[in-house]
Specification:
heterodimer, A: mainly beta, six-stranded mixed sheet, 11 strands, B: mainly beta, seven-stranded mixed sheet, four-stranded antiparallel sheet, about 0% helix, globular
Amino acid sequence: QKEVEQNSGPLSVPEGAIASLNCTYSDRGSQSFFWYRQYSGKSPELIMFIYSNGDKEDGRFTAQLNKASQYVSLLIRDSQPSDSATYLCAGMLYNQGGKLIFGQGTELSVKP
Amino acid sequence: EPEVTQTPSHQVTQMGQEVILRCVPISNHLYFYWYRQILGQKVEFLVSFYNNEISEKSEIFDDQFSVERPDGSNFTLKIRSTKLEDSAMYFCASSDREGEQYFGPGTRLTVT
């Protein structure tokens, strides 16, 4: 069974702090990883994607991938109350029609 | 900014009835997907569609489900005989390659 695991949280950080969200996956055939943000009652919104080992930065967001440890993370710098949402990690396997396997999501709360 | 649209936003139907959920993917995208999310649970892959045929489908996507691209813009999901357990948010997504997927706002399906 191919799984993507996340701590469900809630993770609470003060405004301006760094939020660190983590994800592990079970299938070494996983090719690419995606971070989505989902506000309550809304659809997933793509934040970042990462295909290669290492770090990838986009504004306040940094995604990190370690394929040897089967570990993906998302760092949010200078966290804002508007970042409060559930963050979904998703993995994509090679040659499976683009199927995304989602984790259960980590709820982030940024306190003013 | 181009976006995926879905109609209706909320569909209420009786058990055993057929429903069709509609999606208009982003115009230059070639890959289309349906996912569902039961309240409080993970986002689950249903099916992917490319070049007018199904690329991949999950165990959930049984004979009661079908997808169609009836014209150059719409992508539909049909559930032939709805069950109570089909109640969920259904998300359509699209991508220009097997990569980053952009989700629509979703259709909330309630089966009574």
